[in-house]
Write the structure tokens for this entry.
Amino acid sequence: MIEGRVFKSTGSWYEVHTSEGKIIQSRLRGKFKQDALKVNNPIAVGDHVILEEEIHGDHTAVIKDIKPRSNYIIRKSTKKTGFAHILASNIDQALLMATLAFPRTSLGFIDRFLVSAESFRIPSIIVFNKSDILEEDGFEYAHELQELYESLGYQTAFVSVLENEGMDEILDMLKGKTTLIAGHSGVGKSSLMNRLIPGLEQSIGDVSTFANKGTHTTTFAEMFEVEKDTYLIDTPGIKELGLYDMQMSEIGHYFPEMRALIGACKFHNCTHTNEPACAVLEAIEQGDIAPSRFNSYLSMLEDHDNRR
């Protein structure tokens, strides 16, 4: 038996790297038990797996078992109702790449990603790219967002991958960790990876001037070694990040500013929407909780109601 880690998944074959430096193309044979998880990808990039080499194969192997995951980040499946898709497993942090123009990343999307990561206790970094195309008012707005999210405990960076600005800061954030990188198509994920990993040459898609949206260039999740003990997991561009298997009463717990007020509301089952003596609503009135964050929270509650 051989132990290794999944670096790439193409749906049917998995590229597994061993500690000895070997790369083995591996596959599943038959059904794979996944406990209570209803997912359409039983093996995810980042998984530590046990292999058995195929006797008659061309240096291929069969995945016999998966070692327990320390964590994973997941979203609703876009292909199968009621199922989920694991973006990556065994990660130390998640890096969300966002842009405030061409294309514009909505604050709702940013907050959904942060909530999803919080639900799995995965620290998050927000990187705002394309500073080179922002006008003066755009800079002011970007720094307001930086101040907001840093006040909530999130690391942020403001960079221009095109101009090679801010790359050292990003590399320092990544050192010694396995990081999932995510974001809408067109925000510069592939360009960032090409900067950090010379010779990688990830394909880069154009941004449509009509729809102001990027084209998908990454089809499957894949992990890359930036330097020793530093890994980046690239994911396909995410259009929507549907929260999976989260109770309505839990959502507020994954907003740090709301979590700090747990127990302060008059009612223990307060939804923070219209109840009297609600500490969260009072904090909003006093300006201690940003309206954009509360709107994101309400949007998530609405999505939860629509699923029932």
In short: Helices lie at 107-119, 136-151, 167-174, 189-196, 256-259, 279-285, 291-307. DSSP finds seven helices and 13 strands in the chain. The domain at 88-234 is CATH 3.40.50.300 (Rossmann fold). The two ends are 45 Å apart (CA to CA).
